[in-house]
Fold:
Amino acid sequence: MKRLAFNSLIALITTFGFTQVSAQPDLATQPIPKNVILIIGDGMDDHQITIARNYLKGAAGRLTLDNMAQRGVAQVLTVAENDPKKFVYVADSANSATAIATGQLTSRGRIATTAGDDNDLTSIIELASAANIKTGLVSNSSVTDATMAAFYAHINMRFCQSPASIEKTSDFGQMTIDCPQDLQANGGLGSIAEQLVASNLDLALGGGIKYFRPKVENQSMSVIELAEQLGFEVLTSTKQLQSAPLDKKWLGLFAPSDMPARLRGQDGRSAEEPQPDITHRALSSKGEVRMPEPMICEPNPKSKGLPHLKLMTDRALAHLSQDNRSGFFLMVESALIDKEAHDRRACGSIGGVEQLDEALDSALAFAQKNPNTLIIVTADHSQSAQIVPENSLFKGVGVPVYTPGKLVRLRTPENSLMAINYATNNFIKEEHTGANVPVFSNDAASLPSMLTQADLFHVIKNYLNIPNN
Ligand SMILES: [Zn+2]
Structure:
């Protein structure tokens, strides 16, 4: 909640005239504007990419991702809340998005604030808009969810999404969620939804309308009404998105919360536990174990009629590039790769990678016409799914050998079986894992082959020629 850096930065920018990079009368002498499109696959580690490639393109096939000029890795670094000098080896979306958005490490759950002392961290969105560069965020989660929020909000905990939820303190396992400390009445910036509509974003598209319906803190109007008063065109349908005026700010809220996944398991099935027979239950070296029936993926009827990530990306690119002489920063998140993996739904994650790949097609088509466009694709953290042998190498040793977790056996379009295992815990939700994440780019010169997530902030800032503060 403590705000130190940003106000002084704005003063500095104003003093040194950095805001003067916008429209000049002599267009011929102007440099071509530079743009950055950052695409984040939430939970999109190499396992998720491989699973999606196997299913969507075949084992020897290629996603658009695979044809990018540069492919490297980013280290995912997380620090402990009670001792920021100590590392935690598994991240959440809040701290990893904070690293990308601000260049600083923090602890799990935090949105652009420091671990321990709770100082606000200046984000690339704030720096860009102060330098007159347009900014936009797109996701198929709620627009108040952690990845997107880290780019525009500052709050001690990701769950304080609406004026209703910010009033509550709750105990969540080992974590205490103290939202009220960020109420405006307590010197904070208010809930994440209130911070979004107060931001300088040119557009934010995704789900999460339920977080904008409650009344603004100490006011009689809802957050939606405040958004409209502050100049946002509020969009709630695909049709409205397709025809929205390009000269207004956009707040797209296309679902109550996260948008539904595009694909689901056959008949709505998710991963299932192998079933030992009665003999094996009595004696672990004997008996047999029945594996889940193979399945295919099918369209999820709940996603029908909703805008897909590609459409939101196309519209965002049209909006941000319209009459723009000073460039833009756009972040696009494919959020459901992660959310579906938490629920052990392999097909949902596959559809999430597919949506990301389509959004990347749009970004690459834009970059072909607008050469000064850097595209970076990465993930925020690894996830639980892993491809395991459909037939264990140890089968036939005399004892039943099978996964201790839950399993999806997918029949791929090339008529082979892919076994996907989920086994990070015994809870109703799987957890993230701690491996490096991939980084792809259309410009091999702009990125080293190995960097940290915090380094990505500097790569983006340098590419956009945003001055140092
Ligand atoms: Zn997650």
Q: What stands out?
A: Residues 33-262+301-384+437-463 form a domain with the Alkaline Phosphatase, subunit A fold (CATH 3.40.720.10). The CA atoms of residues 280 and 287 lie 4 Å apart.
